[in-house]
Amino acid sequence: MKKRILILDDEKNICSSLTYALEDQYEVLSATNPDDAFEIMRNEKIHLVLLDLRIGKVNGLEVLTKIKEIDKNIVVIMMTAYGTIESTVQAIKNGAFTYLTKPLNMDELMVTIAKGLEYQSLNEKVEHLNNELKEKYSYKGIIGKSPAMQHVFQLIDRLKDVDTNVLITGESGTGKELVARAIHYSGSRSRENFVAINCAAIPDGLLESELFGHQRGAFTGAEKDKIGKFEFANKGTILLDEIGDMSLNLQSKLLRVLEQREYSPLGSNEVIKVNARVIASTNKDLRKLISEKKFRDDLYFRLNVVEVNIPPLRDRRQDLPMLFAHFIKVYNEKLGKQVKG
After folding, report:
1. Which pLDDT value is given to residue 85?
2. Predicted structure pTM score
C-alpha cells in the first residue's frame, strides 16, 4: 500500500507540481489552508506532511504544533523561501523532521521524504518493541523486569485461579494492593467485586461493623441495616490491608469466619455464608508480632497459605529505568507535556 502524503501550501501551483512529481510513488493529497488540512488528517491516515512555513497569514510553526496534536507520528517536512536559523531551530523543536528551502530540489525532496518515512517506520518498530517489553515486564499495571519481580508475576499467575488465602508482605509503597488487584482481575473472580479495607485506618470498634455489617439498633448510631465488606465482596475478593494492626479480639472473630466460612452481622442471628477470596497484606513482621503476643499464630497460618513478598525498590534497581519511563509517560499524558527521560 502506498504511503499517503499531504501537501499544505497556499500556492495552488506548488501543490499541483508537487502532486505530479510524487503521485507515481505515493498517494498524494493537498490543501491550501490549515483547516482543510486538519480535516483531512482527522479522516485519513497521513504518513507525511509537506508544510509551508507561511500559509497566507498563518504561521506554519503553529500549524506544525496542531498537526502533532492530531497525530504525533506524522512526519513533517517544512518548506520555505524565507529560511532562517531561528525558524529552522524552532521547527525542529516543534517536531519537524527537517527543513527544505524553496525552490525545492526534487531529487533532494525525494531522498528526504524516503528518509522521513524510514524514520517513521523505525519509530513504529521501536514503539511496538517497547509495548512487547512492557507486556513482558508488567502484570496488570505492575512493572518490573528484575528476577524478584518476575518471581512475583509467576506467583500471581499461579494463584489467580486458585481459591486459597494469600498473604502479601512488603514495606509501605511496594505495591501490595496492586498485587492483590492483579490476582483478582486476572483470575476467575475478575467479574465480581474487589473490596479493599484498611484495618489500620478504622477504629477497632467500627472495623467489625465494616467487615461483617450490622443490624439496625445493634449499637448507638446504627440507625439502619448495613451490609459488611465480606458480603459486598461475595464471589469476589476482599483485601484485608495492614492486617497486622488488627486487634486480638477482632483477630479471633476473623479466624472463626475463615474456619467456618460464615458469620452473623452485629445484632443479628442471620448466618451469612462467606464466598469471597481472602487476601491479607501487611508491612509488619507478623512472626515478630506473634512472639510478642500481638498476633494470633493460628490466624497467621490460616492467612499465610501462600506468601507473596514484594521486594523494596532498593533491592531491584534494574527496574528503575522502566518505572521512570512509565511515570514520565503517565504525567506527560496527564499534564499535556512532552518531557523525555
Report:
1. 64
2. 0.60
